[in-house]
Amino acid sequence: MGSEYPTIKIKAGREWQLKRGHPWLFSGGLQQAPRDLAPGSLVDLVDAAGGFVGRGYYNPKTDIAVRLLTCQDEPVDQAFFRKRVQAAWDLRQQALDLNRTDVFRLIHAEGDFLPGVIADYYAGVIVLQSHTAGVDRLLEPLTAALAEVARPKAILLRTDVAVRSREGLGKAEPRLLMGEIPPGLTVQENGLRFKIDPWKGQKTGFFTDQRDKRQALARYARALPDGATMANLFSYTAGFSVYAVAARPGLKTINVDQSAAALEQARQNFEANNLPAAAHIFKTADAFKWLEAERERGAQHEIVILDPPAFAKTHREKDKALKGYTRLNSLGLPLVRKGGLLITCSCSGSVMMAEFENAVREAGAHTGRDLQVLEIFENGADHPWSLIAPESRYLKVLFCRVN
Ligand code: SAH
Question: DSSP 3-state assignment of 302?
């Protein structure tokens, strides 16, 4: 084949998933682990008969030994990344209303056929995350391709993500790869304004995956009676609350998060939309403890939102995570007024929708509340997942009427 990349042979019978487009080969699928290959090196996978299967990067330090970038015999260079980034860019142009929204996920890793790469777009600023040793080594052509396709003002690299430890990689301070980030960076989502701190904000600064759910919430908020209240648990920078109050001025929100910095940003987000923050509560607290105290007080709200961080980061933590969802929802349900709305979310990739539904159903049984499911959401179109690789299908959101 004359390829410039070292070849790795895989065990017989392990190639069919890869040939159908699943990008992962676990270490148990290698015939023999290659020696002297630096973590993140580009390799070609060949089947037991020596036939080309695909090209990707290898890391001996993790269980996902190889992640494929392509099943074609093509160089992995700037032109390759340009093709991938352009396809991702075009999809966002189609799927989103970019007249009212200039914040979205531009690259969703495996879901955009770029394993290990996350790129979020914030009004012309790209915040890039590398999750793997392979991507660390490919940053140059990748950055050049992003610059070519999206023509950003700046590209910031963030490597302060926990998943990197699975690859044997450390965390580092954010690093500007090109351009400059304008101070006071503000984005627009469905016509509402949000301030972003790409340097210090959680993940890359904003949770773009809740855009469509926030918009759906606005529909329900519009019809709320005078004096209605909404408890937004794990509020981060209060995306849900800003939408709800913009739709229903007079609605009082209570925003609870353990991060004081996120709540300070939340206050600014209210002000950025000319919604007086003083009319709302921003409470730095552990959500579980706050829910318990609220229940003891006998407080109730028209809307309760539960959007915790992922309880399961790996498959092994799944059972514990499911119990966690039942516990959290059991704490949240008593706080929903009869006929009110519970919005409950899970972003654990290993938890399937039916399992999450079951965890919430259990909570309903424990608390004697009857849940009517009104709407179900998963990843939005800017967080696509490949049907052959459902690992990227991580978000589950239920809108339930609580009787
Ligand atoms: N709903 C948000 C995103 C939530 S992300 C949005 O639409 O933007 C999860 C949030 O939970 C983070 O802001 C994190 O600071 C917070 N968090 C994590 N553990 C917590 C806990 N035990 N109590 C309160 N907040 C917590």
Answer: strand
